[in-house]
Amino acid sequence: MAVKTVQTVINGQTYTLTLNSSTGKYEATITAPSKSSYNQSGHYYPVKVTATDEAGNSTSKDATDSTLGSSLRLTVKEKVAPVIAIVSPTAGSFSTNSKPTITWKVTDADSGVNPATIGITLDSGTKVTGDAITKTAITGGYQCTYTPATALSDGSHTIKLDASDYDGNAAATNSTTFKVDTVPPTLTLSSPADKLITNKSACTVKGTTNDVTSSPVKVTIKLNSGTAESVTVGRDGSFTKDLTLANGANTITVVATDSAGKSTTVTRTVTLDTGAPVIKSVTLTPNPVDCGKTFVISVEVTD
């Protein structure tokens, strides 16, 4: 009897094959499934072929067949690479922690992220993979965290992140640069001197500040319980501000804060005394006094 039809079923779709008179084989051009076969059982799409003759007799073969089974397993690979998104630290940010926790996400919408390929490289060091990176499953992939085993030096550091999916597509390397700053800024006041006593209400605060890692530094100056006011810091780190003292003890608080949020505070106490002393009484004893003899002068003064 002659063959009447040859059909195949792939991913739930049935296709009819056409005899190629040149080759004597039944053929069809089929569009592969839109999703990778990695997540299918056995990592392949099972293919079933059924041939039916004119008398209605049919024979079927599928992926479980001992002879042809291996030929009836369709492997489909995606071509879209995973996506890496850095959560923290962000580009240009500062960390006051020398062992900052680095957080990022790796996602893939098809075959899935291969966790064994997730890696992080700090500066020019060796890429870190495996259990040193904590991987928490999220929709479509993993949220990853890594804390450096060795403290990072103050200054700039670069993170490079890598990952691939189960079909071997490598994500575009994602990188970012941030700074570690564990040292507060320097702050030196040249005036006024601490515990200064003056009769002038005008007082000029002068000083310099600097931070090697995270300049520019912001400076605020507060007089007594007033509002802390920002002052302009020159390119050389110098600053100055004129204050008007209140009569009596005055507290001047100067705070320098770097871009990482670390601060240094210097406090000065200045006393304004504008009242002249009062001579309340004078006593000469004895008075009168003999020529060439001594006498005692006693003066009572208040201030």
Overview of the structural elements:
This protein folds into 3 domains: 3-74, no CATH class; 83-180, Immunoglobulin-like, CATH 2.60.40; 186-272, Immunoglobulin-like (Sandwich). The chain is built from no helices and 24 strands. The chain has strands at residues 3-10, 13-20, 25-27, 45-53, 58-61, 73-74, 83-88, 94-95, 102-107, 113-122, 134-138, 141-146, 155-165, 174-180, 186-191, 196-198, 202-210, 218-223, 229-231, 238-244, 248-257, 263-272, 278-285, 296-302. The strands form 6 sheets. Strands 1, 2, 3, 4, 5 and 6 form a 6-stranded antiparallel β-sheet that branches. Strands 16-22-21-18-19 form a 5-stranded mixed β-sheet, with no helix packed on it. Strands 7-9-12-11 form a 4-stranded antiparallel β-sheet, with no helix packed on it. The radius of gyration is 42 Å and the shape is rod-shaped. The mean pLDDT is 95. Pfam families: Big_13, Glucodextran_B. Residues 97-182 form the Bacterial Ig-like domain.
Show the helix and strand layout.
Layout (H helix, E strand, L loop, with lengths): L2 E8 L2 E8 L4 E3 L17 E9 L4 E4 L11 E2 L8 E6 L5 E2 L6 E6 L5 E10 L11 E5 L2 E6 L8 E11 L8 E7 L5 E6 L4 E3 L3 E9 L7 E6 L5 E3 L6 E7 L3 E10 L5 E10 L5 E8 L10 E7 L1
